[in-house]
Amino acid sequence: MIARALPLLALALVLAALGACGLIAPGPSVRPTPIADRPIDLDGSCNQTEEDGFRENARLVVRANQVRALSWQMQIGNRGSCSFELASFRQTRSRPHVELLERDGSGCKLMIWQDPRRITMGHAGCERHCTPGVYDKAWPVMFDPASGGCARA
C-alpha cells in the first residue's frame, strides 16, 4: 500500500514545488489590482536634506494631469548633482500617468504617477542631467498629495 502511495506523494510534492516557483499559473482569484486612473492635481514643493547629505529641491505643479511647472535639483552628497527644468521637456502623455520627454531627442523621460499615499516623479535615461557617476544614486522625489510637501517613503 505504501509503495503505491509514494508515486502520488512524489507527484504532489513536485506540483507544489512548481506552483511555488510560479510555473503553474495561479487561479483567477489571484490578480494584481491596477492603480486607479485618477487625475493628478498637485501644487508641490519638496525641500529636504537627508543624513547622508542627499538634498533635493523639487517644485511640481500639475493640474488635471497637465504639468504647469517643474524644477528639480538633487545634490548627491558631495559627489555631484542632477537638475531638471520644465523648459527642456514636452509632455507626451497624460494618462494613466504623466510622461515628459526631453525636447533634444536624447530619450530622457520624466514620469509622474499617483498611488493612494503619494505622487511620485521619477526619471529614466537622464544621465546627461547629472554629474558623471552619480545617476544611479538619483532617486525619485515623492510628494504628499494632501499637503504638497515631501512624502515619507
Order of helices and strands: HEEEEEEEEE
Low-confidence residue ranges: 1-25
Average residue pLDDT: 83
Number of strands: 9
Instruction: Identify the quaternary structure here.
Output: single chain
* Net shape: globular
What Rg do the Cα atoms give? 23 Å
Helix content: 10-25%
| SS class | mainly beta
Strand content: 35-45%
- Spatial gap, N to C terminus: 57 Å
Largest sheet report? 5 strands, antiparallel
Strand neighbour order, sheet with most strands: 5-6-7-8-9
**In DSSP terms, counting alpha (H) and pi (I) runs of 4 or more, how many helices?**
1
Summarize the structure.
Helix content is about 10%, strand content about 40%. It is mainly beta and about 150 residues long. Residues about 1-25 have low confidence and may be disordered.
Write the layout of secondary structure elements.
Blueprint: H1 2-20, E1 42-49, E2 55-63, E3 66-76, E4 80-85, E5 89-93, E6 98-102, E7 109-114, E8 119-124, E9 141-143
Antiparallel strand pairs: 1-2, 2-3, 3-4, 5-6, 6-7, 7-8, 8-9
What report would you give on this structure?
It is a single chain. The protein contains one helix and nine strands. It has 153 residues and is mostly beta strands. It has a domain at 42-143. Residues 1-25 have low confidence and may be disordered.
